[in-house]
Amino acid sequence: MNRSSGILLPIFSLPSPYGIGTLGKSAYDFVDFLADAKQSYWQILPVGPTSLGNSPYTSYSTFAGNPFFIDLDMLVKDKLLKKSEINAVKWQVEDNRIDYDILGEKRLKLLRTAFERNDNYEEIAQFVNSNAWVKNYALYMALKDYFGGESWMDWEDEEIRLHHPLAVEQYSEKLKEEVDFYIFVQYLFYEQWTALKKYANEKAVKIIGDIPIYVALDSCDVWAEPENFFLDEKNVPKKVAGVPPDYFSEEGQLWGNPLYDWDFMKNDGYGWWIRRIDGAAKLYDVIRIDHFRAFESYWAVDIEEETAKNGEWIKGPGIDLVRTLTNWFYNIEFIAEDLGILTPEVNQLIDESGLPGMKVLEFAFDWQTPSSYLPHCYKENCVCYTGTHDNNTLAGWHKAADKKDIAFACEYLGLNSKEGFNFGVIRGGMSSVAKLFIAQMQDYLGLDESSRINTPGTVGDNWNWKLDRAKELNKSLSSKIAKITKMYGRC
User: Fold this and answer.
1) In sequence order, what are the beta bridge partners of 469?
2) Which of 10, 379, 386, 491 could be disulfide-bonded to 38 (CB atoms 3.0-4.6 Å)?
């Protein structure tokens, strides 16, 4: 990874008249914006189909793409939809906010209409042959519909709940049309994604993708391959994932994901992880491994607990898994998300892996306690962020943080009113020795806390911000970003 920079903006946050960002024109326009701004990377969040809470870190599949990201105008060009059918829907109630209820009701209906008009059977068959995961995923989604949207844990038929082969065969035939629909949707997603990635790469823009450390309990991954997870004889989790009390939450974060059966995975040669990274490598140029510290040790909480306070640290697979993945995928770049509670053992794993870790400027300026996130502490092999999707925007942080912390940041970075707070902090990251610098798009736009992507430990108002107007991404801004990028040798 050469000295470079990029911008973090989720697909769902792209401007769109149809309620949510998609893989259509606004995505291509954003690639053009990045190229004009001399940015080498576009960092996004996981692109899987989301479940309860709409978090991209809680998906029905580690391989599938989000149906909401399929661009509808492209389906009009393919004569699968009519423009009038799209325009008949009121896609959002509030500006700059995604309404997932509307999307769930209206978007899938339009995709079903497209499915009924489709006659491209040969290419879809080729897609199925090249993506072994898609049949299980499509059946899983068809079964969820059949059982009223319930998680597989609550399906009435015990045989299919436990993924018995004969039941899988019977339901595959019984629900064939629904299975074919969900295969078709994935075909559309991957067709549009492949074209967008090709365009970005031709513009010298690489895509940084994010893989969550865990998968959702309500997912095809756990239902179809329960042997990879720490479950009882009924496939119910014995313990679940989370993190203890930290910067974000006094009670910790109880994620509820099933934990891996690392002994089984090791004996299997980490086959599931190899397939998972192989799938991600089709989507991304660089893979950010979320919650990397769990490879060293992870927080396990009894399933009966209501918070993450009462848990225990259990040793993870460590360098054995990391070496397996980096040796197998030697042509893929990785970033280790090493935030959170770091121990000497976690730091040793980072060092042994050789992967770049993360430094977050919003964590750096504690006026009372020296921080390793201060730029003068960086090693070259790291990625510097203004903030991640879990952090406030710079403008929001400036308003909410301890005034003494802000005063320390101003003094340390030599901020001035002419430059402005946001661009001063961005300059601090741009000028650091970190190989890669990433800023949230909101920080370049000067947006406040109302444009925050996620507040960890909370529910109800996350993952729903999007840019309302494409004109905010204008030539004046791209030129300003390009200037500072050139100044600090990142292009």
Assistant:
1) none
2) 491
Please identify every residue annotated as catalytic. Answer: 290, 337, 390
Report how far apart, in Å, the C-alpha atoms of 383 and of each of 4, 104, 136, 373 are. 10, 36, 36, 11
Q: Residue holding tokens 């993952």?
A: 463
Alpha helices in 131-219 (DSSP H): 134-146, 158-161, 165-174, 176-202
pLDDT tens column, 347-405? 999 999 999 999 999 999 999 998 999 999 999 999 999 999 999 999 999 999 999 99
Residues whose CB is less than 8 angstroms from the CB of residue 376 and which lie 6 or more positions away in sequence, other chains included = none
The fraction of the chain above a pLDDT of 90, given in percent, is 92
Token readout for 296 is 């060293």
Whether the per-residue pLDDT at 235 is higher than 90: the answer is yes
Q: Is 180 exposed, middle or buried (0-12, 13-18, 19+ CB in 10 A)?
A: middle
> What are the φ and ψ backbone dihedral angles of 254, each rounded to 5 degrees?
-95, 95
Tell whether the model's pLDDT for residue 246 goes beyond 90.
no
The residue behind tokens 């496939």 is: 235
Per-residue pLDDT tens over the stretch 122-138:
999 999 999 999 999 99
CA of 151: how far to CAs of 43, 148, 220, 304, in Å?
A: 31, 9, 10, 18
Q: Where are the beta strands (DSSP E) in 279-435?
A: 286-289, 297-302, 311-315, 333-336, 357-360, 382-385
Angle between helices 344-353 and 319-328 (to 10 degrees): 20
- Residue 484 Cα distances to 7, 388, 423, 433, 489, angstroms: 14, 21, 9, 15, 9
Residue 482's SS3 state is: helix
H/E segment holding residue 257: strand 253-258
The model's confidence at residue 249, banded by pLDDT at 50, 70 and 90, is confident
Query: Phi and psi for 9 in degrees, rounded to 5?
Result: -155, 115
Contacts of 381 (CB under 8 A, 6+ apart): 354, 356, 357, 435
357-360 and 333-336 as β-strands: parallel, antiparallel, unpaired? Answer: unpaired
CA atoms within 13 A on the CB side of 307: 11
248 has a pLDDT exceeding 90: no
Give the model's pLDDT for residue 69. 98
What is the spatial distance between Cα 350 and Cα 253, in angstroms, rounded to a whole number? 23
DSSP β-bridge partners for residue 359: 384
